[in-house]
Amino acid sequence: MQYCKRCVYPDTKPGLKLDESGVCSACRAVERKHEIDWESRALKLQQICDEVRGSNGNGYDCIVPVSGGKDSFYQTYVMSKVHNLRVLCIVVMAHLQTVEGIENLNLLVDKLGVDLLKISPRPSTLKKIRRLAFLKYGNPNYAEHRVMFSGVARAAYFNNVPLVVWGEDIGVEFGGNVSTTSAEDGSAQELINNDLFRETGFEELLEGTIPDEELFFYMYPERETIGQKNIRTIYLGFYDWWDGIKHYYLAKSFGFQKRKAGLLPGNAIAYDNFDEKLCEVGAWLKFIKLGFWRPHDHCCYKIWNGYMTRKEAVHQVNKVQYDFPAYLDEFLEYHELTETDFFECVEKVRNHEIWHKKNGKWRLRKELTNTN
Ligand SMILES: [Zn+2]
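Above: query sequence and zinc ion SMILES. Below: predicted holo structure tokens.
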């Protein structure tokens, strides 16, 4: 495992590559962002909005998938207030919402004056799929990712909505491997083929244990079906410099609140990913499998947007990366797992190429320092 010289990501992150200078593909993408003519991109977005505004009769002009977080506020604000589109927000209901998560989502709908469609897949099925995805792949959040992508596509189809606006292109922003199309024209049409979605075979995961009729919202519509409608799918981050901290201040101006109890264990900011309780353990499993998690994500973002030096990031990551994630009890209860089941699974997915025991404690073989 090698770390990027400029940010704090290790090259064990899927899709991330270090070049001969030791700088990662995500940092190189940030460099390229400085050369982009953002004014002409903003004009392009304006054109798209002009094309779709009012084109769906009395229906919605645009779908914005949301969670209720700071980025959701920003996306919804830009589409509804700046571009004056009739926005339908879509959320996949979290299993265990936090109070702040509920309040922030309500605030978004109220203050930004949009409608919200909630997709609540039946809990028994969601629970089964999450449990399987955890036990087999150590990736319980896989189920929600599927519902989000498929549910948004289905909602756009049913409601004849001509435009879907995702937030950031995870490929460009995080150095993954999303289709190059998105990098060329901001289209997220190929989103369904990206790594996040394909990470594991769905049928292979379920092994026929769940009847098809319970899986409607987990299945992406057939290409031929969805192709009949002219639905344009874009990433807002292609047209507008993506800066989560800027988004937080915008959201805050509408009353958005950060986590009342302060930082979650292992986190470096208190205003991201706190709207539900089960995702923390899911995020931490990335650390076990890939050697990075929340603090790396948070600090890289700060470095890229000029809010933090690498030295500060190294210090911050080292301070919290070995924290144990919050809400383990809730995680165990929700998935009907014992602590023994849980830790057996953790050890099953632990990557021994990057982890070793040191003085009886699991530690990364290669620690992040100021000089690596
Ligand atoms: Zn980097």
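The chain has 18 helices and seven strands.
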